[in-house]
Structure formats: structure tokens, C-alpha cells
Amino acid sequence: MQNLTLTWQTSAAASAALYAAAFTVRRGVARRAGEEGRRRRAGAVADVLREAGTLLALFALWQVVGHLSLMGTDHALERAEWIHRTEGEFGLPDEVSWQRTVVGHPWLVRGANYYYATMHFGVMLVVLLWLFLRHRARYAWVRTTVVATTAVCLLIQFVPVAPPRMLPGNGFVDLAEQYGQSVYGSAVAGVVADQLSAMPSVHVAWCVIVAVAVVSVARGPWRWLVVLHPLVTVWVVVVTANHFWADGLVAVAILLTVYLVQAAVSGWRQKEDAVLAVAEESGERERSAVRQG
Q1: Predicted confidence (pLDDT) at residue 60 exceeds the cutoff of 50
Q2: Cβ neighbourhood burial of 275 (10 Å; 0-12, 13-18, 19+)
């Protein structure tokens, strides 16, 4: 098993196909007269196709950026070494010790590799689909959070940073490669550009977005089970040596900043809407007074 995820070419092609399907369905809706129920359902299908296409396009862009670099790949390993050393100076737990707890358990290693490769995109897709179909009013907020957070992460990833698994001298092991479950291509001299986008961790950012969305939108005590997803994801990215603690911490800091900006923008919009409502009401009163006079 060489790859457990979509390539950027496959993602881009699927995105284009979904957009084309959405356009076709939308045109059919526009041409159809009557049958309001059918038109509404067809419009909903077109919306789902468009949003799925958007998510796949974002996924493809994320992968493409992994192949690019603004500063070359020469110092990617040195940056990773610096992160590992700095974490130790701040007293963070050594990721190597966490990885050693699973090395002797093949079933656990395989499970962690599968989780890393499949759940990142799969869980996000399911949650966005659930929001779109069942909680449309909350969907736009979450979708905007995903796009904005990922975009900021992509900008930072133009500066290449190697993942821990590329530092065997520090005690790390590339478990996915060892078990034939790597989602990355073959490395030339041990380093390829698409593997040097470890900082920050989009895996961690997305799993936190999912947990926050489900907990804030769903009702009932069962919704808190989703908290297991970020906990498991953080554990997985560490024990598989795909990310340092710092990669996840920076990703969460970016996400919190995006939340704050969104809250501020929403506050401004609410104030603007209130001012416009007052102005419209005042204008209506003046027009009414003129007519009565």
C-alpha cells in the first residue's frame, strides 16, 4: 500500500468534475418551470456538489503548496532540529519517548498510520456535509474557518520544515514508511519538498475545528465524544513522528486568531445592520410625516 490519500492531481480533477456537475444541475434548475419541491431538491444537490468541490480544491492546493518552497529545502532539517531542541528547553515532553511506547505494538502502529492518512480529510468532509444538510445557518461560519485557517497555514508552509520522522539521529522512526503505509512519495536523498510542510500542523487545526463545530452545534451529551478526535489526532501525529508539539501549538494559535477575527467581523456587521435598520426606520418615518403633512 503506497498511498492512502488523494494526490493533488486526483483532488483537482475531482473538484473540477464536482463544479461541472453543480453547474449542470443548477442550469437544469433554472430551466425547469414549476415543481417547486423538485427544484428545491435539485438546488440543494447543486449546492452540495459545489461545496464538496471547494473542499477538494482546498485539499489539492494544500498538497501543491507542499511541493513548493520560497527558501529552498536546504535548511528544512536544521529548522526541525531547532524545534526539537527548543521544545526540550521549554520542558515539553520528548516526542521520541511517546513514539517508543507504540513501536513494539504493530497493530497500534498500523492503526495510527491509517488514522493519520484517512481521518484528517474524512472526518472534516462528514462534519461539513452534516452542517450543510442539517444546520445550514452554521455552515458558512465553519467553512470560512476551515478556508481561512488552512490559507494561513499554507502561507507559513512556504518555509520548509522537516517532520520529526526525518531526524533518525534524534531517535525518531518513520513508522509509516516502515509498515508500507506512507502517504508520501519516495524521497530523493531522504528529502522531498512535499514532505517539508510540517509546520504548522493542518491535521491538528482541522481536528480542533471539527470538535468545536460539533460541540457548539449539536445537542445532547453524546456530542462531547467528538473531543476524542483531536485527542487521538494529536497522539497519532506525535507517535508517527509526523509532527512536533510545536506544529500543533502554532496551528491552534492560528485557529484562535481566525476565530477572534471572525467574531470581530461579525460584531461589526451586526452594528452596521443595526445602524442601517435605524436609518431605514427613520427615513420611513420622515416620508410618512411628509405624506401626512
Answers
A1: yes
A2: exposed
